[in-house]
Design goal:
Elements lengths: L3 E6 L19 H20 L4 E8 L5 E8 L7 H18 L6 E6 L10 H5 L5 E10 L2 E12 L2 E6 L2 E6 L3 E6 L22
Parallel strand pairs: 3-4
Antiparallel strand pairs: 1-4, 2-3, 5-6, 5-9, 6-7, 7-8
Length: 201
């Protein structure tokens, strides 16, 4: 189950006679990787102080309305709606002070879900032998997409078994990575998933 809090933020300078901020659009993978890394560094200490972990941040720039998605986790148990709401308020306050995102954006705080994202070599190491999907920045052995069990993590290199063959991939070449969701047959009556949205301010 994924719990998500969605909050819409408008350019706070719009409509009050001040010059609107402008955004220089750079959509390259390296730019986005660096932006995501810096946002994760900014948010991680505050989220850790709340007893939660900031798994990673995904920034998706857009001319109309950018998206900032923050994934959080908890060692104490499943992430709750209250956790997402509290982190959303904290992140909004940090963004107001540090102003890392220009223009209008939507902030989404979410639990990782069954197909949890993998952002660091440490994340891969937690799930040895679990199946993962990877998309690379640069082709390796003629392909950019790999899917298979995680067999090893050595430093910044990750070994994935692709079609029965181990393939070592440098973490710096990984654009996106997620676990492949595993679904087990329900023992009782199936439950319902919930998504929580905060009304637009």
């Amino acid at each position: 189950m994924i719990l998500a809090i969605v909050d819409d933020h408008k350019d706070r300078f719009a409509g009050i006679g001040q010059k609107r901020r402008t955004m220089e659009w750079a959509f390259g993978p390296f730019f986005l990787f660096m932006q995501n890394t810096e946002l994760t560094k900014l948010l991680s200490p505050a989220i850790a102080a709340m007893g939660l972990e900031c798994l990673g941040v995904e920034y998706s720039p857009s001319h109309g309305n950018s998206l900032v998605r923050v994934y959080i986790d908890s060692s104490a148990g499943p992430v709750t709606v209250d956790d997402c709401e509290a982190v959303s308020r904290q992140v909004s306050a940090l963004f107001d002070v540090n102003d890392p995102i220009q223009g209008r954006y939507t902030l989404e705080v979410s639990s990782p879900g069954l197909d949890r994202p993998l952002y660091t070599p440490e994340h891969f190491a937690r799930f040895i032998d679990r199946e993962a999907k990877l998309e690379l920045n640069l082709p390796l052995h003629g392909r950019r997409r790999f899917q298979g069990p995680i067999r090893a993590v050595a430093g910044a290199n990750i070994t994935i078994e692709q079609d029965g063959v181990p393939v070592e991939i440098a973490h710096g070449n990984v654009n996106k990575a997620r676990l492949v969701a595993r679904f087990e047959a329900p023992k009782g009556k199936p439950g319902k998933s919930r998504k929580v949205e905060k009304a637009e301010k």
